[in-house]
Specification:
about 110 residues, mainly alpha, globular
């Protein structure tokens, strides 16, 4: 399953910067990523962890960074977000924390 374009991504309108929309976008991206492993039936929620629940490796996070950039452009910098974390924080990273980062990044980009 390939994620669809976010609302407004092709028609010049801003991407919706709310948790529900971003979670839906991320769920689509993760479905694409997990489909490669045959895990396309995994439920993604705010408390889902990338490491423990989804069993993603560091290379998968690089792929996710690429999907995020493709999806949101330079408004969301996943590498910079991870660079500000300790190793343990990255291991325990939840979908919800990434959703919050994306929402905040989009709001900053809209304001700027």
């Amino acid at each position: 399953m390939k994620p669809s374009q976010p609302t407004g991504a092709t028609d010049g309108e801003p991407v919706r910067a709310d948790e529900e929309s971003v979670l839906a976008d991320l769920t689509g991206m993760l479905a694409t990523l997990l489909d490669e492993y045959g895990l396309d039936d995994v439920e993604v929620r705010m408390e889902t962890t990338f490491n423990r629940d989804l069993e993603l490796e560091s290379i998968d996070l690089v792929t996710l960074a690429g999907l995020l950039e493709e999806w949101y452009g330079d408004r969301v910098n996943f590498a910079e977000f991870l660079a500000g974390m300790e190793f343990d924080e990255i291991i325990e990273l939840t979908v919800g924390r990434l959703v919050e980062h994306v929402v905040q990044s989009l709001k900053v980009a809209e304001a700027g």
